[in-house]
């Protein structure tokens, strides 16, 4: 039978390119979890995806109710769930003020981490009950949250501190809107959320890999400088960033190539190792990459897990 992969944020960029790459193999049906149904269906059509190769299901990660409803709706499709890809993200580098999810969490961490945390926790039992030979839960990470790299050292650096802001609810009322308790900084909030993504993947691995047989993985697909992720950046940045990445850092990767990389992590029979953060070298060969000290801190991962559970109503 075909495999079924859920991809969040499949209406543009990496998520769309991955959906397309999987659909084209004829071996996958993609459930596109998207907040804008019309945009997603137009994007799938423009990408040339066969209409039988995907199903769009509404998902707004900025609302925990929407996440729960998405899980119900997906179950009603009565398709097995073989792979889940947590890909959607928001990045607000120029925001002066924080914005909030429906549950009153700062938006970047609320969408990129907390929404996905609830989604992944809810769908774990579905993955477990699938009879697919290689079941996977993939959380897209980033080099920018990784302070052991050059790109991860561009200020403001990711730093979760002692998680006091998160423990306080990240709402700017009783607590800071930043995980470490500091002042709002949109670029840092994004990087922090990506560290959360990488810590969460490893904590899933420690808690559930043996018991469920599910492979947990994260990846840095390369710098896809052309995606909508940079839509809120100043125009000059958007103009110069792609050539800068292409010719200066040479970290640039096209949406198509990045989509193939993520599709590999979804389906390649050789990438079954769990607890791994994949990257690709210049020749586009995948390798197991090292995470920064903070992004591989097991105590922090456990603490993050426990606080996140409370915030999303699982504990
Ligand atoms: P895009 O902005 O193109 O894609 C992000 C997707 O997330 C869009 O489909 C967007 O939906 C969706 N999304 C945003 N908010 C929500 C929400 N509240 N609920 C549901 N979906 C939402 O960016 P990329 O493709 O670049 O980013 C994809 C992933 O890749 C992210 O995890 C990012 O961190 C990661 N990444 C990107 C890199 C890059 O260089 N671009 C580098 C490293 C990692 P909509 O279409 O409706 O806006």
UniProtKB/TrEMBL annotation:
GO molecular function: protochlorophyllide reductase activity
Predominant location category: plastid
Lineage top rank: taxon: Eukaryota
GO cellular component, one term: chloroplast
Catalytic activity: chlorophyllide a + NADP(+) = protochlorophyllide a + NADPH + H(+)
Record's keyword annotation contains Secreted: no
Function: Phototransformation of protochlorophyllide (Pchlide) to chlorophyllide (Chlide).
Family, as annotated: Belongs to the short-chain dehydrogenases/reductases (SDR) family. POR subfamily.
This protein's name: NADPH-protochlorophyllide oxidoreductase
Shown residues within the full chain: 80 to 394 of 394
